[in-house]
Amino acid sequence: MASDDAEVQVRPGAEGDLVALTDLYNHYVRETAVTFDTTPFTPAERRPWLLSHPVDGPHRLMVATDAASGRVLGYASSSPFRVKPAYATSVETTVYVAPDAGRRGIGTLLYQALFDALADEGLHRAYAGIAQPNAGSTRLHEKFGFRYVGTYREVGHKFGRWWDVAWHEKEL
């Protein structure tokens, strides 16, 4: 798979990606309201999350790397939407791209690989919560057929202010 300016490989996440994935996520924890986590993680703390995404099944982790250097450029994942059994055919999806790798089509490559992998998993819906404002994430989700279903107003408090989360859903 190729992005606009570099050859990019997309593959299932592996334990060897843990440090790079943790560093990437921690950027968003420290610098943005994209995630409502407020304290950076150590790789050991993030390991259960990584292990909860096997190479098969409805909860996947896809990683984009630079083909030449092997550097992690981003990831997309599907996780349980809610813990109660009746929610088992729904997933929550997310995508994170390295801050210096944005606007190169990496998010698109990641989501395409993720949804291709989920196609035969018997899932009914995917949901995405997007902290507002985030026009880029909204565009990406709409590109993949997500539609807006509602907003949780002032649901998160980070960096001394309140943040809304817009919820989108996609039929699978």
TrEMBL record:
Keywords: Acyltransferase, Transferase. It comes from the Bacteria. Residues 8-172 form the N-acetyltransferase domain. CDD domains: NAT_SF. Transmembrane segments: none annotated. It holds the Pfam family Acetyltransf_1. InterPro entries: Acyl_CoA_acyltransferase (IPR016181), GNAT_dom (IPR000182). PROSITE patterns: GNAT. PANTHER family: N-ACETYLTRANSFERASE, UPF0039 PROTEIN C11D3.02C. This is N-acetyltransferase family protein. It comes from Streptomyces thermocarboxydus.
